[in-house]
Specification:
Elements: H1 2-17, H2 22-69, H3 73-87, E1 89-91, H4 92-103, H5 113-136, E2 140-143, E3 146-149, H6 156-196
Antiparallel strand pairs: 1-3, 2-3
Helix pairs in contact: 3-5, 4-5
GO molecular function, one term: DNA binding
Family: Belongs to the E2F/DP family.
Subcellular location: Cytoplasm; Nucleus
């Protein structure tokens, strides 16, 4: 009896899986093809839309990187250095304010006020960092709130040229001193040779 139930269940499941007539078979096949066809198109459309969205995002990311590269630490450092050098005497706030005004992007007017304020604070913070580094390198000096330009230190090549010139002068002076000593010693050598001989 248990085998009959299993066999009848299998027969019933086969009948539901396999159509009994040819017309049912063709309609089911046609419907399946249409659905498969639609699924393929939907996947392609979604994939192509996803690709377009990804391309747009990549383009926006590139644009954002270009704008940020204008405000990177190397660019800000050069601008701070130029400003302090051109003015001679200035203050931290004056340099930071000018830098923020110069780097304020007219294209960013669509940004939220919080984002603009964050960018301004970031630029100001970087300007202060650069000024502190310049002070540590003894390029500028600070007296209370005033900054004074001292000048760039001589480059390593200039320092090496000066050092080389000094060493050459010392070598020349030592060579001339050695020559004097040899001239003083030579009569003694000749006297020793006469006594021995």
């Amino acid at each position: 009896m248990g085998t009959r139930l299993r066999k009848s269940c299998i027969d019933e499941s086969r009948s539901s899986c396999f159509p009994s007539s040819r017309s049912e078979q063709t309609t089911q096949t046609a419907a399946a093809l249409k659905l498969n066809h639609l699924d393929i198109h939907d996947d392609d459309d979604a994939g192509s839309q996803g690709a377009v969205v990804k391309k747009k995002k990549r383009g926006q990311q590139r644009d954002a990187r270009k704008n940020k590269s204008r405000r990177g630490l190397p660019q800000i450092s050069m601008k701070v250095l130029e400003k302090v050098e051109s003015k001679g005497r200035t203050t931290f706030n004056e340099v930071a304010d000018e830098l923020v005004a110069e780097l304020a992007d007219p294209m960013n007017s669509g940004l939220s006020p919080n984002k603009q304020q964050y960018d301004e604070k970031n630029v100001r913070r970087r300007a202060y960092d650069v000024l502190n580094v310049l002070m540590a390198m003894d390029i500028i000096s600070k007296d209370k709130k005033e900054i004074q330009w001292k000048g760039l230190p001589p480059s390593a090549i200039e320092e090496l040229k000066i050092e080389r010139l000094g060493i050459r002068n010392r070598i020349e002076s030592k060579a001339s001193y050695l020559k004097e000593l040899e001239e003083q010693v030579s009569p003694f050598h000749s006297l020793i040779d006469l006594i021995r001989g």
